[in-house]
Amino acid sequence: MSIRLRLTLWYVGLLALLLIVFGAALYATVAITSYQEVDRQLLQRANDIQASLATALMLQEDPWEVFRRGGVYLPDADVFATAEIFVQLARIDGSSFNHSANLGNQQLIFPQAQLERAKRGEAVLSDFTVNGTRLRAFVSPITTRAGQVVGFIQLAQPMRTVDNTLRGLGTLIVIIIAAGLATATIGGWIIAGNILSPIDRVTLTAQNITRARDLGRRIDTPKTMDEIGRLALTFNEMLARIEELFRVQQRFVADVSHELRSPLTAVRGNLDLLKRGAADDPAERAQMIEAMDSEIARMSRMVSDLLLLARQDAGIPIVKHPLELDTLLLEVYRQAQLTARGVKLILGPEDQAIINGDRDRLKQVLLNLVDNAIKYTPQGGQVTLGLTKDDAWVQIFVRDTGIGIAADHIPNLFDRFYRVDKARSRDAGGTGLGLAIAKSVIDAHNGKIQVESNVGQGSTFTVWLPLTETKNAPTVAAPAPTTRLALNEN
After folding, report:
1. Are the C-beta atoms of 406 and 484 separated by less than 8 Å?
2. What pLDDT is recorded for position 249?
3. Backbone phi, then psi, for 7, in 5-degree steps?
4. Is residue 489 classed as helix, strand or coil in its secondary structure?
5. Are residues 295 and 267 in contact, defined by beta-carbon separation less than 8 angstroms?
6. Which of 58, 191, 325, 434: CA 20 to 30 A from 234?
7. How far apart are CA 153 and CA 43, in angstroms?
8. What pLDDT shows up at residue 240?
9. What values do phi and psi take at 360, rounded to 5?
10. CA-to-CA distance for 362 and 282, rounded, in angstroms?
């Protein structure tokens, strides 16, 4: 069952319930009011007759004298009768001695149980049927001044008018409900179609995108930003994100293929040389084995880095423990001194700071930054490590006096496999994943890396880490126009 049909059925069903409740309430109100009006008229006529009989009954010592021929004058029943009200005066035994002309030769016969109640002084209302005509009847006792019941005032009114009115009202209510539901069904179907048509267009566009594999297509957003407009806008944003991720994936696969092709080609070439007899020369054989070992080590590092990035992309959380950053910085400083190779390594300010973090991952980040700084700093240059903090953040900086980074390269520094001209580096054997891993690790620690550099003057990488867990990294100024070459080398 389609959403359009379900919406229409729900709308019509709810409207039907409301109309039925309203119609039933209206019918009940009119019926109760009509019956009350009939009862009021009968009671009023009974009171008028009772008042007319009161004087005569008060003057008589003998109550039976009231009904003797030639006795006290009794008002004629026709005085109180109307075209719709029958009047009958009866004796204590129930026999009629006076009735209105509109009764003709007929007599109102009341159930004995009602007469017994009237003898006890009660006024009784009841419904009964005479010759197929439903009557509303009222019996009231006639009493003397001593309180003795000597007869009955019997009134009746046919319910034809009330029944016809209620029957017509019921028919009208049914017709109105049926017409209303028919109109609501047609209108609800049209309105639901108009409301859901943008969703159909979204679905059709999505199907076309899937079949054509064209992630560049977008959904036309309506002018009004209602729920449908926001859905279309969100869908377009999702498409843009998917398109970007797909483009990055394609570029990533191409980069991986390219990076793996070079070491595999080198290994295969050396193996071919060994097969052709180059193994007879010990020096040449050792050189080829060393080259293959170097390329295999490079591939191993690349695969390890890719596995690490894949784990972080999959959202596998890192394990954080309390960590003394100043102690970790000192370890990195001592380890980097072993690979300084003519570059002066200086330990700058070193504040004490404890954060929650992954020791191994953060050490990998700092070693990578220091290693890059050493690679791109000429011999005799200087690399400085330092740690400072404020109330909420720790700043670890790695500053060098190397070749710097061009401004147009800075936005891409942390892309995977991104490398500038390797020829200007003293060691171009990296995989191009080091800074990508560094950024991923820092992001997992709710931090951020800031890069500042000037061509020919050096670069500064600053890592911001929260002393306590905060959601967003600090806002840092955009780096000044700078240049750096072949940075992302592991």
Report:
1. yes
2. 75
3. -60, -45
4. coil
5. yes
6. 191
7. 11
8. 84
9. -65, -40
10. 43
Q: Where are the alpha helices (DSSP H) in 350-476?
A: 359-375, 434-444
Contact between 329 and 457 (Cβ < 8 Å) = no
Contacts (Cβ under 8 Å, ≥6 apart) of 438:
364, 365, 368, 369, 414, 449
For residue 200, the model assigns a pLDDT of 80
Alpha-carbon radius of gyration of the chain? 52
104 CB burial (10 A radius; 0-12, 13-18, 19+): exposed
Which residues have a Cβ under 8 Å from the Cβ of 100 and sit 6 or more positions away? 77, 78, 80, 81, 85, 86, 87, 88
Give residue 273's pLDDT. 74
User: What per-residue confidence (pLDDT) applies to 91?
Assistant: 80
**First vs last C-alpha separation in the chain:** 59
pLDDT < 70 positions in the chain: 55-83, 145-146, 212, 222, 255, 258-259, 277-281, 309, 311-316, 418-432, 468-490
Alpha-carbon span 488 to 69, nearest angstrom = 134
Q: What is the pLDDT of residue 277?
A: 67
pLDDT at position 128 is 78
Q: Which helix (H) or strand (E) holds 453?
A: strand 448-454
Residues 6+ apart with CB under 8 A from 308: 437, 440
Name the phi and psi angles at 26, rounded to 5: -65, -45
Q: What is the DSSP letter of 278?
A: G
Q: Which residues are CB-contacts of 430 (< 8 A; sequence separation ≥ 6)?
A: 419, 486, 488, 489, 490
Check: CB of residue 367 under 8 Å from CB of residue 332.
yes
The one-letter amino acid at 422? K
Cα angle value 350/396/338 (rounded, 5°): 75
For residues 87 and 444, what is the distance between their CA atoms, to the nearest angstrom? 99
Angle at 453 between CA 451 and CA 458, to 5 degrees: 125
Place of tokens 């149980």: 113
Contacts of 376 (CB under 8 A, 6+ apart): 400, 402, 403, 425, 426, 459, 484, 485, 486, 487
Tokens of 125: 């209302």
pLDDT on residue 3: 79
What pLDDT, on a 0 to 100 scale, did the predictor assign at position 26? 93
Q: How many CB atoms lie within 10 A of CB 66?
A: 20
The per-residue pLDDT for 419 is 66
Q: DSSP readout, 13-29?
A: HHHHHHHHHHHHHHHHH
